[in-house]
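S1.2 Input.
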Amino acid sequence: MKTNLWEAYLIKRDEVETFCDGYKNFLSSCKTERECIKYAVKQAKAHGFKSLNDLMKKNGKLKPGDKVYAINMDKAIVLFVVGKQPIENGINIVGAHIDSPRLDLKAQPLFESQGFCMLDTHYYGGIKKYQWIAMPLAVHGVVVRKDGTKEDVVFGEDGPVLAITDLLPHLENKEKEDKKDIKGEDLNLIAGNIPLAKAKEDKVKAFILNILKEKNISEDDLFSAELEVVPSGKARDCGLDGSMIIGYGHDDRVCAYTALQSLFTVEKPDVSTVCLLVDKEEIGSVGATGMESMYFENALAEIMNLCGQYNELSLRRTLNRSKMLSSDVTAAVDPIYVDPYNVQTDAHLSHGISFNKFTGHRGKSGANDANPEFIAHLRACLDKANIRYQATEMGKVDQGGGGTIAYIMAKYGMDVIDAGVPVLSMHAPWEIVSKVDVYETFRAYQAFYNMK
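S1.3 Output.
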């Protein structure tokens, strides 16, 4: 087995801890796509990025060294640094997703049952339903009223939390005590228990509606809302040695954060560089804010136009000649559940950024399979920068597999490989990463952005 990266970083642990402190703050405050985009825009402006829409309205122009960002429906973003070479020669892209497995409130979520006001949910992405019960939960999101005004909502972080109840073992049906039998329709949150005395019916629900009314939110407004149920609480150090971070949403916000922060270090690159943060990967990259949409391609066309380099053929050549790191997490070998893994070929915590040459399932079904010429180029770039990395797969051949946005971008004919942080307890409400892997991934993306 390769050397644990902590052996190299113990002498400079301070820089690892400083970087990871910023990441923990990001992970604790950005639990939805919209919160991630607000953070990204604020940081981008502080680093000299300008809005693409504003430049288009002013008929502005872009030149090498300029920085620009484009937002897609407040749930995806493209950040671009113009390079010295013609864009048509290709660009270096690091693309991550900012959605994570969770529960969503339904369009009509409020109902009363047995003296409780409940919130009805629909799970999003690949979750183990039993992991979401009997734990503190919060609701983050936005409510949009008919007049177009918006109300950002956070319940369950600083004040009272919400929860989904569990059945005590004394009443458990022994034949169905396996918690994997939990039905999605039973994932309902307890919202309250106090009745509103003056209400004629559904008195507890009426009390909760009064709380919403204080924020000028009506029950009908919940139809035009986007409210996500997430674990309550902050990301924290994990382990007696503090070597790891436990938090919600490492998949894939750990790659989003490192991709973003590494882009902010790029100044006047030779090759144009792009950080791409997208939505909906956990449910197939569909919809207007997912990678399957045309938004990235359209934004790229507008940027090329402002650089005076746009025509349809140049756009196609740019996409075809580009190189991309599909920055998504992979599963780290778990010391408790070793059997599903191939310990020789799967990722290990604290051994650096993980490169998955191919993804897909079993016989590489649905995989992007990176070209060896591209991998060789990457190796030279990473070795020159003294980056520690792992060549990995995810699980045993007949058992493992997974999908990312890599295959979607590969449709353009560009070189793509999956590259990200190894994670323990992936898709659980609380996931675990190693601090040195987070920092080494930041350094790897930094090297890639500047790769010629």
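S1.4 Remarks. The domain at 6-100+248-449 is CATH 3.40.630.10 (Aminopeptidase).
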